[in-house]
Design a protein that fits this description.
Layout (H helix, E strand, L loop, with lengths): L3 E4 L1 H6 L10 H11 L4 E3 L6 E5 L3 H11 L8 E3 L3 H5 L7 H10 L4 E6 L14 E5 L4 H10 L3 E2 L14 H8 L5 E4 L10 E4 L6 E4 L5 H8 L3 E2 L29 E6 L2 H17 L4 E5 L11 E4 L6 H17 L4 E5 L6 H12 L4 E3 L2
Helix pairs in contact: 2-6, 10-11
The protein binds adenosine monophosphate and magnesium ion.
Length: 361
Amino acid sequence: MTTEYLDLVEWLRECKNDRDGVITPEIQHAGDIIKAGGLVAFPTETVYGLGGDGLNAEASKKIYAAKGRPSDNPLILHITEMEDLYGIVEEIPEAACILAEKYWPGPLTMIFKKKDCVPYSTTGGLDTVAVRMPSHKAARALIKAAGTPIAAPSANSSGRPSPTKASHVKEDLNGKIEMIIDGGEVGIGLESTIVDVTGETPVMLRPGYITKEMLDELFGKVEIDPVITTLHPDPNLKPKAPGMKYRHYAPKGDMTIFEGESEAVVARINAEATEAKKNGHVTAVLATDETKDKYNADYVFSVGKRSNPEEVAHNLFDVLREFDEVKADRLFSESFSGEKLGLAIMNRLRKAAGYNIIKVD
Ligand code: AMP
Ligand code: MG
């Protein structure tokens, strides 16, 4: 199939000061593709999503097929207004109202009991449904043009790092979907925070830009799914977000994270890289601005300033994809503090490295 391409970078610039963007005929065409059961990749404030009509079981199946995604890994439904929520969930618990008031539209997904109209192919067979209200104008215009909740997982091939630029989406999905909307680089760069609001107290199932600390501030202490903080995967720990059990965000090479004091980490990575190069491997390092000039690997990519976790989050997936671009097969990464946004950064990094972590003294 030929994938159509719609560039909304200029449109986004023009509607910068509007609450919502104007639905142009081109955007309406994208919405019509969704309505007709087709797939459109689009930018959001977190990462690019691969969208289809979330209430159309066949469209959801196409999403799984295009991504090569396991069918038990449910999709997130994207809406633009609170009214849209009433149509797809059985009940809206008080915690959800508090969270929606504070963080919607934004990078927060909540888990609700689903209504019958939401097909099991969208929810991976679950009786619950994940819902998010994005703030990105292109995402909102597309949802409005489609006139239906849009089911959208990240627009990458299953297992690869999530896309933060339209070129990443092209790499993975060109020729497999009807349209790619280019909105330039996304803002946040990590997927949404997921919170289950179906129980007595909210439980964080996936860390993201909305941090555990921010949720604690609203509710006292919220629970956190233990798989998020685990340093070693435990076969007895079953993640509550089914997607969290899969190898994810992973570059193709063999990746190791080094934890410890900066000088010691640099020295250890350089020793490992020297050895790997001797054995004919192509080596690459995920570094920070503070350390990037100190490495001897074939390739060194900085995710930005260590003192700026927003910048690190923004660049993380791009660097993981760069590793593949240069065909590096031995990858070494620095580690980050697990506080606040750092929890989400380390969660993605650990999964990318398949929990290959070495402590350096
Ligand atoms: P992605 O959009 O690719 O980041 O994937 C969506 C994430 O949301 C996956 O990790 C899913 O497991 C999670 N998710 C979606 N629906 C549910 C649900 N009903 N219950 C728990 N987790 C969910
Ligand atoms: Mg994903």
